[in-house]
Structure formats: C-alpha cells, structure tokens
Amino acid sequence: MSRTALTEILDRSLLDEEFRQAIQADPYEVFKGFDLTDEERSALLSRQLTKVSDLAFMACTIRFAMIRNIVALLPTLDESRKAELQSRGEEIARMEGDRTEAIKKFLAQMR
Amino acid sequence: MASASGKHREPDIHIVGLGVKGIEHVTRETESACRRSNEILAVANLPAVLTYLKSLCLRVTDLHPLSYEEDENRLKAYDTMSAMVLAAALDHAPVMFATYGHPLIYVYPTRQIVDAAPYFGLTVRVLAGISSLDTMLIDLDVDPAMHGLQMYEATDLLVKQRPLQPDVPCLLWQVGAIESVLYSTAPSRPDRFRRIRNYLLRFYSPDHELRAVYSSHHPLLDSSIIKFKLADMESHYEDLHQGLTVYIPPVTARPVADMDLGSKIESLEHLQSITRPRAS
C-alpha cells in the first residue's frame, strides 16, 4: 500500500496546487497523513529524483525511460514509391471500421 | 494553416509537446488545442498528466501500454502509436497526438505522422513544447551562445563515427540505450559503455569530467547530475539509465581565428558598412 501512497502524493501534487504548496511549506506535517515507509519519506524530503522515481516505480523512471525513444539509422522514404503509397493511402481512407492494422502495414511499407 | 479566405483552418491532427515537468510546462497554445480535440492520444511521462488531459478532453487514450514489447525493435511500437493516431483522425478528427517534451525532438512517431498524413488526405499542425534540451541547459547552466553546442544520439555517434569538437559543449542523448535499437528494460552491463568510452577517449583525456544529467520531471523533485571521469564511465553503469543524457564540457575555449573581423565587431563604422540606412 505504501507504493500507492507515494504515487498518490506525486500525482496529487501535480494536479492540486494547494496540496503542493502545503508540502513545500511543511512536508513533515503533510506526509504524516500518508502511509509512507521511512525510505520513501526520506527520499521525498531530500527531493532526490532518481530515488523517488525508483520507489514510485511506474510513476517515474521506468515509465520515463521507456518512452525516451528514437534510434540511429532511421529509415527514409523511397521517393519513387510515392504514387503507389498515395493510391493505397486513399484506399485506406475510404475503408469502413477500424483502420489501425491497415495503417500499420502502410507505415511499414513506407520504409 | 490559413485557407484561401484567410481563415485559420483547424488541422485534422495537432501534434503537441507537453513539456518535461508534469503539467507545469504545458503551453496555453497546447491547452487550447486540447480543448478543441475530439480525442487525445498521449504518451505521458507521469500518470497525473493523463488525468489533467482528461479535464480538457473527454476522450484520452494512453498509448504507452499499447505500444512496447520487450526485446522488440522500437519501430514496431512507433508504427502502432502512429497508426492509432492516423486511424483516429480518419474516424473523428480533429485529434491530438501529445507526447512529453518537445514533439520534434527525439519523437519518431511525430515524423511518421507528419510524413504519412498527406497520403490519407489529413492535415497536421505541430506545436512547440518545452524539451529536455531546454531543461538540461538550465540544469547544466550552459548558454549555447558562449561556445556553441554539439549534440548527438549516442548510438548514431558510434555507428557513424561522427567527429567531435572538444572546444564545444557536447550532449550525448540516450547513452543508457546505446548499441541497440531494441526496446528493453533490462539493466546494462558495464561492458555496454566500453565502446563509447573508448571512442570519446579519441577526443578527450581520461581525466575529463563528464556529467550525467536527468532533468526533474516533477515539481517536488530536483534534477539529478552525476559527475564522473571519462575513464570511469564503465564503472558508472548503474547510473547510466535510459532517461539521462551525458554532458561533456568543453576542454578549452577556441581562440579568435579571424583577427581582422574580430577587431571590427564592436566598430560602429563596420556596422554601418554592413547595414542600410533606416527608412525615416
């Protein structure tokens, strides 16, 4: 349950300006109302980004790391295939229902 | 995006950057576009950001859990994200693709959506956001006006053997994910950083101090900066996670090479020789 308390503090302080100001004014007092471990309380009081992120798990570091993403050697579009892609794009646009899978294939064809 | 009548036409897809520090960096321009969207498809760095987006738009889709698979090429994940945004736009435009940071800095799906949209008859507008480049310049107290700035994606640097200028500050992005384009949450081995260390040793001394910077993404937390010598890079393998960027300070300042021009840059006479008289 403690992990939930930490995540709740992080989430609520982003969305609730008064709550955040209360933490900044007197963190000890605010944290008394949450089921934090000593390690979590200490990390929050020290404002240590990496430590808090690790403790909060999905709330910060792991999630953040997973979405920082771009790679070397990205593919570029072959200009000679534009007419073919145009025709296929128009075909997909006219389709009924969910087009997601068709567009995924289209994007792969662009490479 | 102006039409022939001069009216501002709404695009089918807005692509926006939400900034780095939770919702603190969301611009008013982005917020306004959120309110006009029928759906926001988001890659957010904190769950609370999704809650915030739901206060602006009834339909918010978190793309993150739908998109990545362990040990897979990241391009598959990007294809899924981009396809969902394009499909949503064909179905119920206007929609928004919202990502943390800046939408055109290290965000491949943006590139895909911009390139592919015209084939489906869709229009796109990209709005600027605060990037981690912006926050890192603050964290590192670096102004690019002083010595310039060079920055590279770490794997790209190695693969292409790009030359580095030791007199120019350098940012190496994605060092924690170096040497692979596959998506993985597995922690790195020390060996992962041997090749990059050896490459950097061609340009910098073993004692040169590097900084691993991880900008704060929450107002309750401070940015993290870890200093280490280039020679010790491998031993910092646990610190070099995927969220951070390595900063290499310049070794020396480059001296003036064009003495003639250097002597003229404060001269009023020279300024008048390269400008036209103001219209009265």
Could you explain the architecture of this structure?
The complex is a heterodimer of chains A (111) and B (280). Chain A is mainly alpha-helical and 111 residues long. Chain A has eight helices and no strands. In chain A, helix 1 packs across helix 2. Chain A is elongated. About 11% of the residues of chain A have low confidence. Chain B is α/β, with parallel strands linked by helices. Chain B is 31% helix and 16% strand. In chain B, helix 4 packs across helix 5. The model of chain B has no long low-confidence stretch (mean pLDDT 91). Classes of the chains: A mainly alpha (111), B alpha/beta (280). The interface between A and B is large, with 54 and 63 residues.
Write the layout of secondary structure elements.
The complex is a heterodimer of chains A (111) and B (280).
Chain A: H1 2-15, H2 17-25, H3 27-31, H4 38-46, H5 49-56, H6 61-67, H7 82-94, H8 100-109
Helix pairs in contact in A: 1-2, 7-8
Chain B: E1 13-17, H1 28-35, E2 39-43, H2 47-54, E3 60-62, H3 64-67, H4 74-92, E4 95-99, H5 108-116, E5 124-127, H6 132-140, H7 144-147, E6 150-153, H8 154-160, E7 170-173, H9 194-200, E8 209-214, E9 224-229, E10 245-248, H10 259-264, H11 268-274
Parallel strand pairs in B: 1-4, 1-5, 2-3, 2-4, 6-7
Antiparallel strand pairs in B: 7-10, 8-9, 8-10
The helix-and-strand class of chain B reads alpha/beta
Rounded to an integer, what's the Rg of chain A over CA atoms?
Answer: 24 Å
What is the CATH-assigned architecture of the largest domain in chain B? 3-Layer(aba) Sandwich
Give the percentage of residues in beta strands of chain A: under 5%
Q: In which range does the helix fraction of chain B lie?
A: 25-40%
Uncertain regions of chain A: pLDDT < 50 for 5+ in a row? Answer: 58-69
Structural class of chain A: mainly alpha
Encode the helix/strand succession of chain A as letters: HHHHHHHH
Shape summary of chain A? elongated
The CATH topology of the largest domain in chain B turns out to be: Cobalt-precorrin-4 Transmethylase, domain 1
- Helical percentage of chain A: 55-70%
Q: How far from one another are the termini of chain B?
A: 34 Å
The main sheet of chain B orders its strands as 3-2-4-1-5
Rough outline of chain B: globular
Largest interface: A-B, 54 and 63 residues
Mean pLDDT of chain B: 91
Strand content of chain B: 15-25%
SSE series of chain B: EHEHEHHEHEHHEHEHEEEHH
Q: Any idea how many domains of chain B? A: 2
Say what oligomer this is: heterodimer
